[in-house]
Amino acid sequence: MEQNKAKNLEEPSFEQLGTVTLCGISRFYSFDKVAGLPDQWQSFAPLIHQVTRKPQPVTYGAIYNGEDDSFDYLTAVELPEGTQPPQNMVCLKLLQQTYAVFHHPGHVASLRETCAAIWSDWLPASGKKAVDAPWFERYGSKFDPMTGAGGLEVWIPVSD
Predict the structure, then answer these.
(1) Whole-number Å distance between alpha carbons of 69 and 30
(2) Phi, psi (deg, nearest 5) at residue 69
(3) Handedness of CA 46, 52, 58, 62 (dihedral sign)
(4) Which 3 state secondary structure label does DSSP give 122?
(5) pLDDT by residue for the chain (160 residues), tens digit each?
(6) Which of 113, 155, 111 is nearest to 134 (CA)?
(7) What is the maximum alpha-carbon separation in the chain?
(8) Which candidate, 41, 50, 65, places its Cα nearest to that of 152?
């Protein structure tokens, strides 16, 4: 089964991302409690306009402070440069970094399988090393938060 996941995983592109500040709601999860993620997105959606005035901003789900069985998850948008973050929001600065960018064309419900294939199959075989930095999901304008369809990207910080 692991080999099937690797075969279904498209080869990534490699992107250089400059320093970006993400701003939103952060919650702590253990891996057995990730069912709460959709609720976090529903809580964040009406607050997006407090961070940015863009009509359809790119949204992010950033994973950081990861341990063996837990992590912090930030639902966020980019904080416009020179803007003060709202007091009720958490900011996470992503430093300039190279990322392996994977397109996840399916429904958001199957994202866990894509991430498992990246970390357990692609990364060990790639010759790349994961950098100790946040990694994230990037939801563009084609993603429909009401249906969970439309695709997204998974950005993994890597080095040679």
Answers:
(1) 6
(2) -135, 20
(3) negative
(4) helix
(5) 333 344 478 899 999 999 999 999 999 999 888 888 989 999 999 999 999 988 889 999 999 999 889 999 999 999 999 999 999 999 999 999 999 999 999 888 899 899 999 999 999 999 999 999 999 999 998 888 778 888 899 999 999 9
(6) 155
(7) 48
(8) 41
DSSP 111: H
Strand runs labelled E in 6-151: 13-17, 20-30, 59-64, 70-78, 90-94, 97-104, 129-130, 135-139
Distance between CA atoms of residues 32 and 96, nearest Å: 32
Residue 50: phi, psi to the nearest 5?
-75, -20
Question: Using CA atoms, how far apart are residues 153 and 149, in angstroms rounded to an integer?
Answer: 12
Which DSSP symbol is given to 95?
P
Q: Is 85 exposed, middle or buried (0-12, 13-18, 19+ CB in 10 A)?
A: middle
